[in-house]
Amino acid sequence: MAQCVQSVQEFIQDSFVPLVAALCSEEAERLTRKNNLGFSELVKPFCRLTSEVHMRDPNNQLHIIKNLKIAVNNIITHSPQPGGIRKLLNDVVSVSQPAEGLVTNVITAGDYDLNISDRSVTASVPWYNNWKDTLMELNASTFYSATTPWFEAYRESFLQSMPASDHEFLNHYVACMLVVSSSEPEPVEQFLKLSQEQHRIQHSSEYAYPKWFIPNTLKYYVLLHDVSAGEEQRADSVYEEMKQRYGTQGCYLLKINSRGSNRGADEQIPDPWSQYLQKNSIQNQESYDDGPYTVISNKNADHLISDGLDNDIQVDGLSNNFKAHPLQLDHLSDTSSSFDGTDYIRTTSSLHESKKTSSGTPHGACLTLTDHDRIRQFIQEFTFRGLLPHIEKTIRQLNDQLISRKGLSRSLFSATKKWFSGSKVPEKSINELKNTSGLLYPPEAPELQIRKMADLCFLVQHYELAYSCYHTAKKDFLNDQAMLYAAGALEMAAVSAFLQPGAPRPYPAHYMDTAIQTYRDICKNMVLAERCVLLSAEILKSQSKYSDAAALLIRLTSEDSDLRSALLLEQAAHCFINMKSPMVRKFAFHMILAGHRYSKAGQKKHALRCYCQAMQVYKGKGWSLAEDHINFTIGRQSFTLRQLDNAVSAFRHILINDSKQPAAQQGTFLREYLYVYKNVTQLSPDGPLPQLPLPYINNSATRVFFGHDRRPAEGEKQAATHISLDQEYDCESSHQWKELEEQVVAVVNKGVIPSNFQPTQYCLNSYSDNSKFPLAVVEEPVTVEVAFRNPLKIPLLLTDLSLLWKFQPKDFSAKHNGATKELACGNDMIGAEVIAEFLINSEETKLARLKLFPHQTGELHILGVVYNLGTIQGTVMIDGIDPSIGLQAGKFVYNGISVRGRQDLEIQGPRLNNTKEEKTSIKYGPDRRLDPIITEEMPLLEVFFINFPTGLLCGEIRKAYVEFVNVSKCPLTALKVVSKHPEFFTFGGNTGVLTPLNPSASENCSAYKTVVTDSTSVCTALMSSASSVNFGLGTGSQPEVIHVPLPDSVLLPGASIQLPMWLHGPDEEGVHEINFLFYYESIKKHSKMCHRVLRHTAVICTSRSLNVRATVCRSNALEDEGKGDNMLVFVDVENINTSEAGVKEFHIVQVSSNSKHWKLQKAVNRFEDKDYKLASRERGKLCFKAVRCKNSGENYTFADVVFGNEQIISSASPCADFFFRSLSSELKRTHAQSNIFQGAAKQSFDEAVRLIQKCSEVDLNIVVLWKAYVVEDSKQLILEGQHHIVLHTVGKEAFSFPQKQGFKKILGNSDWEGLEQESPEMVLLKFFRPENTSLPTRPTPEQLSNLIKTSLHYPESFNHSFHQKSLCLVPVTLLLSNCSEADVDVIIDLRHKTTSPEALEIHGSFTWLGQTQYKLQLKSQEVYNLQLKACFVRTGVYNLGTHRVFAKLADQVTLFETSQQNSMPALIIINNI
């Protein structure tokens, strides 16, 4: 049970006190009414004795009485009616509410901290507070228990309003005070009349109520004297007469009203009556909205049920205010008459605080502190001299009567001891006893005399004697089977046993159980059973037997009284929480039951409080159905109490939690919520829009898009993909777009990215960088995509859905002292799109795209969404299918309830993790995606692609057209396009547009510029030249950034232009995503937005075509009269297409070279039929002779070797464009690789080594142009294409497609070909780590062999007559060619090596004549002839290549040997004639 203010002993003692009746004359009542009090009310605060009282028991033993209290009540001649009692108890509980603002009581039970104060009646939502924080605020960790003042008030009122019964005497009157005023003409005569009246009431059969203890009731005569108005001398004389007549022990002179009523309040006199009395009777208060009874107003008193007496009749001049009981429903209409029902009511200070009452009048206004002491003294005198001696005397008389009637020689006190010490008679079970509860004893029956004596002893705290008498009476009653009497004796015997000092015997709880069962089941008296339960539960609680107390309380709950059941269930719940191991869930369950019964009893506030306290246990534990029930009840009760905020909060929690309720129940919850919300909004229609809980909004998934929706493709036109809300975010792709934009911005700003550069972001989401304010353009829509989720199983209908925003207009173009100029805001600044109906089906996530149209520059803040929340008209499910699923927009029917509200979009930024402080704490950065800055008008570009292919062969050239449209009102300029793959496309060079501009006119034309060739020129190459500057690849430029050739470089508003675009299929097969970023600016320079971009991603699928490999080697022949240098170029072409795109065969139509230093001269292995075609998987080898160019400069020399009848001008667009773009990409790739290995060592290179290395380098580029014949839809198409091979080094093979690093080093060429056809799973990866990252200081043998080129000129056969002359001399010319750019010192050593027998065998048969060593110096590119003579002594085949050549640069010391391993053997045949 809850904690009580009193101890259990005090509670029981105050529940059973001696009752004293008060009968006042009309004049005496008038004197007390000066203080707004009746006589019984006047003495009530002073009825507890402050000192101990002594009396003697029948054995003449001294007995001490402590803290004795008496009750003085006006005589009431009608027993209270049950309806009146119920109403009184209901009102007592109703007005007794916890005081607000007190320190919260928190019970710590296991893992729970339960708040037991009643904060729920305020507008807050206490059941979702953090109770641990509340506990910490109490500044103490001790155990807190809850108090329930409404239960104590109910219990006290219940015990005091119990009607007197014949089977017990505890609430029978022991004495009667007769009160007369000293101002009456004949006070003594008046005493006589009052005495007669009391006698008539007690002994006349006319009055069955009240009950009196004994026939000769003690009469105590009180003379009331008004000090301020009366004559004190007359009062004293009357008092003297009274003492002579009634004795000094039987009368008293009480002086009151020392202050005049008309005097002001000079001093503040304490008001001890306020804690006992209410300013107005409960019956006169306003009726409660939640009360089950309606109070009948005074004006209807004429129609009330009468008790047979006229309320206005005066009996012998006395007021008959005792005629009507205050608990009767038909209360008096005369407001001046006294309602003594207040004697039965103990109220708290909250009683008159919680209800509107009439302005309170002070009590005791005419009384001074001296008067207070006089009244206190009067009660003590009455108790000491009158009441207790009378009780003591009565006990002795009863004891003597019982002894005489029983024929006993000793007193009952000693006799009962003997009875208890002897053998005990076994008590019969209550189920075996007959139902004789109707048995009545006559008043003089000995059994009743024992009970009467026991009750008297109990009232004066003589519990041991009382227990003995109760026990004796209990046996007698059980023997007579008088069950009502027996139950009463059992009840009081148990209480007496508990209250005995020193606890000589344990509390007999089974006595109480038997008494409760008898009252309830046999006697059918629930009032007495309830009293037993209240007493026994309090006793058990004091002994910490909470489990037994809870069982007892629950046992008495029944359907006959909801209020009693609610109070007892609540106390049982508190018992569970106060156990040694608190049973928190049982506490919550019984609080729910109590709340339900409170609700049925009309106690809405208490019901709400119980549910709120139970919610503390159920919330957050996964018991969603229980939470829903509790929240639903809290919402309804709060709404009934007009606590609308609480109701809204409770219903909100039902809806926002993941409900497991069926759809029908969820619909009920939602309708209740909408109904409550509608009432809330009607109270303050002009207030701010409320926050709605449904549907859920995933704030982090909110996306913002700036700009118009792109137009879709029209016929052959394909619009640029740009960016839209339908595309998924790709982090890698986003980073690539950012790099492209930075690249083009750097080019525009001369290689430097501005400090205020902000990457363009058209679509903002949770992955984008939202730390800066985004930029939007005036007159272009801002689209916000909001992710709604409906957690319920019923559809939600949102109507009039739009964005909520705040706008601050600013003029960014006008500057005033460095600050922007703010403009006045109008309603037409921002246009908002409204979605009329937006249906979200059950448990669906749906995206809503809402637009704003800014019409002026400034700062826009998007705050949230605003909409009407409603449900669609309920329909019946047909064949198990909910017809609401899949409804289309525009076909909904309201169910009549919808509320307008808002939801804010609050997006949390990314967590900061840069500094130490940020890492050690939780801090979040800003997310400004919803706060765009509206800038000035900017141009807007749209791009369309015409005849743009989706599939190409590797290396294929295709012509398409691009249309640029300016759809804004501003001209645009500086149009550029940037891509990571500049080799994929070109707009043509500056040599002029040589092809038709109209797409339809170019269907059957070649993409190349062609010229018909002459038949005489097929053997040699055709020359032309071009500069890379003409193709946008000048020095210092970036090939990725391409200028779009607009006429006059401006595109006017509304204008459009079509430009040709050539495409080149990537060299690798597969699917390629190629990103284009179109960059453009406005003619006017803006402060906020400098440029705009448009994105396009082209997806190209390439198929395999040709695989081209080439190698270059030096020719040993020194032709052209020894001038210049020549090389052989071997080109290996293989058709690796497997008829994937319907390709029949490839024709090699032309091979071109372009270089600054070399050119192709002619084809060596020329075919006769001039047609060079390759079927599938065929391979062909071409050999060309290359010579040095005569011109030197920055221009490239183009040489075309034609295999057909048409020459493709390789130095014109688009052939040259793609060559230069692939060349720059190749250079960029090789440059990046060389940087890895060189680093800083590049600067420390030896000049000699560099020159030597340069000899082995060749700068020759080969372009293979081809045609492919494709059969498609029974129609033959001709495709064109080109492959590029970049030759860097003599003797090193080059490829037309990029090679994988590392493989070529492991495998030979033939192995590599086979490896290409294998699946990737078959490849064994091997990684190489360079041993030395710095370049070697000595050149490699390959580089040395290219420094000096040697060639022997001699006759292939020589005839000599050895018979005539034994020595054969043959002239031999040795040609030395300096291949380097510097002077070279050369040493020729003709001596044979004799290091091995093989060398002797080969070289021993001939010798060189003349000098064995020559020293020469060759100028740059010089060719030198050295005449030698070889001497032979016999015939045979000889190898003349035995010479060794050493060379060094002229200004160097180190000598390098020239390797001749690449030279052919110099064989000569010597014949004998």
Q: Any overview of this molecule?
A:
The strands form twelve sheets. Strands 12, 24, 26, 28, 30, 33, 38, 40, 42, 44 and 45 form an eleven-stranded antiparallel β-sheet that branches. 27% of the residues lie in helices and 26% in strands. The protein is rod-shaped. The chain has 30 helices and 57 strands. About 15% of the residues have low confidence. It is α+β, with helices and mostly antiparallel strands. Helix 10 (412-421) crosses helix 12, helix 18 (584-600) runs antiparallel to helix 19 (604-618) and helix 20 (624-640) runs antiparallel to helix 21.
Summary?
The chain is α+β, with helices and mostly antiparallel strands. Helices cover 27% and strands 26% of the residues.
Mean pLDDT, to the nearest integer, reads: 77
Secondary-structure-derived class: alpha+beta
Global shape? rod-shaped
How many beta strands in the DSSP annotation? Answer: 57
Relative strand content: 25-35%
Roughly how many Å is the radius of gyration? 59 Å
Task: State the helix count.
Answer: 30
Termini, distance in Å? 145 Å
Q: Helix content range of the residues, please? A: 25-40%
Which residue ranges are poorly predicted, with pLDDT under 50 across at least 5 consecutive positions?
Answer: 101-105, 118-144, 279-359, 407-436, 815-825, 875-894, 991-1004, 1236-1245, 1301-1321, 1331-1336
